[in-house]
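Handout, tutorial session.
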Amino acid sequence: MPNLNGKVAIVTGAGRGIGRAHALALAAAGANVVVNDLGGSLAGEGTDLSPAQQVVREIEAAGGAAVANGENVADFAGAGRMVEHAVSHFGRLDILVNNAGILRDRMLVNMSEEEWDAVIAVHLKGHFAPLRHAAAHWRERSKAGEELHARVINTSSPSGVFGNVGQTNYGAAKAGIAGLTLIAAQELGRYGVTVNCLAPNARTRMTEETFEMGDVPEGFDPLDPENISPVVVALCADEAQHITGQVFHVWGGAVNALHGWTAGELFSSDERWDADALLAAMRDRFPNGVAPDGMAAGMQRAGGQSLRA
């Protein structure tokens, strides 16, 4: 296991599921952990610090160091206080794992403005706000002459990279997080900060109410949330300093470094296209039409092209 001794990590949404697994794995690797969780419902309603406190107790029982934090990551000032909490309690910040999220699934024609706004706020703004405050902390340290090995791990979703019916709000936010990752990686590299992103598949309280995940198999469970965390620990190692701006799809033991938008199909003309001619060229290239494959097909393709241990 990579040695993260002395490093300080914030994990948002760490009271349950994937976030909890990340917090425990980072602590097991030696990091001190700020366990952030608002403790709300699946829809983001209410507050309860006890899930975060329970994870802190688990880390401390195993000999690690952790502190609970109940800030709302979608609140810009609250995200700043969370970063300050890490620095004041542990003296520094080295790792930010943005994981917190909610669901308000609805078909597009029935989705309310509030359902859209709530999901975009928690996921997309809830990534931006902690990242913005952490980046300012790291820039200040870098300008003071410190050589940094800082890490950001963002959380997208197969819904964001492949698309999934009934999740226009969630998928749009998760696609935005992948874009945020690419740009932040380019901006923060000068300070010694890498920014990567996960698109995980796991059985959690979010996914079990949204997708048919199937029965738990005997032996290795490909949907165990703990399958995702080794990717986080690996990317947080000092030796991963030059791996940045990547989106990793994770399903069981399969890890894909995804390729984003590519040049795809080229329709070339020596001059401005005439609309009729372009339409004819498109119909010739796509005689049966063309449409998104959807999340299931995307995940199946990814699983067949994976790096395996």
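The second record follows below. Compare its token runs with those of the first.
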Amino acid sequence: MALAARHAVPAIYQGREFVAAGGLISYGTSLTTVYRLVGTYAGKILKGANPGDLPVEQPTRFELVVNLNTAKALGLTVPPSILARADEVIE
């Protein structure tokens, strides 16, 4: 993230944490949701389930987070269509 900022390169990250720390945009799964799923799996295994019998699950919800402060610093205008779709906009 620091390298992208130093060279004024717009970058998209996989997690909202990067945008909260000054990144431009993130699109990815919620870590909270993923950790909850891991906890559920661990609970099933600790209760005796065979890991090979558990179904493979994939995230179904993705978050779009935009940092308008970073966009402004980079001289970018984020289109209204992106802002309307964003789950969170940091101003």
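Points raised in discussion: The beta strands are 12-13, 25-29, 62-67, 88-90.
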